[in-house]
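S.,

Sequence below, as promised.
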Amino acid sequence: MHGKITPVGKKNPNLPFHPGVRAGDFLFVSGQVAKDAEGNMCDGPIEEQTRWTIEAIRRVLQAAGGDLSDVCKVTVFLDDVRNFGRYNKVFAEFFSDGNVSRTTVEARAVIDTKIEMDAVAYLPVKG
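The prediction came back faster than expected:
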């Protein structure tokens, strides 16, 4: 732990970062891709990869005592902008109230995936 910055989640030994980092009342979720709870990549159409990616974000949030309702900002990276409408429909299933700020860009990930997302959640420190 460095000052008030606390890592969240199990760090991949091959990567120089944690799945999440708490800084004060905020939790910053590192870029997540379509993986199951055991870390296995999930292949499939953009709709399925979007669901798995959001569930990966949810797992990091839950490890810090939060959930998707605590998310205030999401950045989405699509490998093909033509998938926007299909991913957006699934995104709306999870964030139906629209109380989230979001940026979506077209970019290729360093691994073979159709989508990657990171998130910022507001989780006030209890005390």
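The chain has a mean pLDDT of 93.

Coffee later?
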